[in-house]
Design a protein that fits this description.
- By secondary structure, the protein is of the alpha/beta class.
- It has 2 domains: about 120 residues, Rossmann fold, CATH 3.40.50.2300; about 90 residues, OB fold (Dihydrolipoamide Acetyltransferase, E2P) (Beta Barrel), CATH 2.40.50.1020.
- The strands form 4 sheets. It has a 5-stranded parallel beta sheet, with helices on both faces. A 5-stranded antiparallel beta sheet has the order 10-9-8-12-11, covered by helices on one side. A 3-stranded antiparallel beta sheet has the order 13-14-15.
- Helix 2 crosses helix 3.
- It is elongated, with a radius of gyration of 20 Å.
- It comes from Costertonia aggregata.
C-alpha cells in the first residue's frame, strides 16, 4: 500500500484545519474526505472505504461512538478530542489511539506509526467485491455495555440465536444484531463455511474432524467447541478441504 486512505470526522472547522496541517507532514497519508457530523461521516466512510478514521468524540446530535456503531466494517480508528474523560471508553471500542487536543506533531507521528504497524502485516489484495469483507477487515460489535473491534480472521464461528447472531472469538461470544444469512453474505467464502443451518465456521479454526452419525462430520474448534456438520454440508466440507 503506497498511501493510507484517511477520513476526518470532526465538527470544528478549526480542529479540521489543524489536523489537515498535521496530515500534510506525512506523505503516506492520503486525505480522501472530511465531514463535520456523524451522518455525513457515515456516508463518506461508506463511499471511500478508508484505512484510517480520525474521529472526534464529542459532536452535536450523534457522537463518535455512535458513528462506529453504525458501520458494518470499521477502519482503524484514532480518536481526537478535547476531553480526557472519554479515554477509557475509547479503548473499550478498541480504538488504536486517543489524541488529546491540541495535538502536536510529535504525538500525531506516534499515532501514525501505530497505524502503519497495524496495517503492514494485514494488507490483503482487494480481489473480492466491495461488498465482501476480507480476513483483515474489522467489524464493530456492541453487546450491552461492552464493545469490540474484531478482525474477521480472528472469529472462529458464528451461531444463530433467534434473529441475531452470536460471534465467537478469543474468550468472547457477544451478540451481533444481524441475521446469520446477512453475516454469511459478507464473509470471505474461501475461509468460512456454512456447517449447518445454525452455524458458520472459520475453517482456519478447525482443530479436529471425526466421522459422525448418518454420514455427518463432527468438528472440534480450537476453543474446544464442537460443531456438527449436516450430512449435505459434510460432503461439501470434504470437497472444500480436500487437495
Amino acid at each position: 500500500m503506497s498511501t493510507i486512505k484517511t477520513v476526518l470526522v470532526e465538527d470544528s472547522r478549526l480542529a479540521r484545519n489543524e489536523l489537515k496541517e498535521l496530515i500534510k507532514n506525512f506523505d503516506e497519508l492520503e486525505l480522501v474526505g472530511e465531514a463535520e457530523n456523524v451522518d455525513k461521516g457515515f456516508e463518506l466512510i461508506k463511499n471511500t472505504q478508508p484505512d484510517l478514521l480520525l474521529l472526534d468524540i464529542n459532536m452535536p446530535e450523534k457522537d463518535g461512538f455512535e458513528l462506529l456503531e453504525m458501520l458494518d466494517e470499521v477502519p482503524i480508528t484514532v480518536f481526537t478530542t478535547a476531553y480526557d474523560e472519554y479515554a477509557i471508553k475509547s479503548f473499550e471500542y478498541n480504538a488504536l489511539d486517543y489524541l488529546l487536543k491540541p495535538i502536536n506533531k510529535k504525538r500525531f507521528k506516534k499515532a501514525i506509526d501505530k497505524v502503519k504497524l497495524k496495517l503492514e502485516p494485514t494488507i490483503e489484495p482487494n480481489t473480492s467485491s466491495a461488498e465482501k469483507l476480507t480476513m483483515a477487515s474489522q467489524i464493530f460489535i456492541k453487546d450491552g455495555e461492552r464493545c469490540w473491534l474484531v478482525k474477521i480472521g480472528e472469529i472462529s464461528h458464528f451461531e444463530i440465536v433467534g434473529n441475531y447472531t452470536r460471534v465467537f472469538f478469543q474468550n468472547e461470544k457477544p451478540m451481533l444484531y444481524k441475521s446469520l444469512n446477512q453475516v454469511e453474505e459478507k464473509l470471505p467464502e474461501q475461509n468460512f463455511f456454512r456447517a449447518n443451518r445454525q452455524q458458520i465456521i472459520n475453517t482456519n479454526y478447525v482443530q479436529n474432524v471425526v466421522p459422525w452419525f448418518n454420514g455427518k462430520l463432527k468438528l472440534t474448534m480450537k476453543n474446544n467447541d464442537e460443531i456438527e456438520v449436516s450430512r449435505r454440508q459434510s460432503y461439501l466440507f470434504k470437497d472444500k478441504m480436500s487437495l
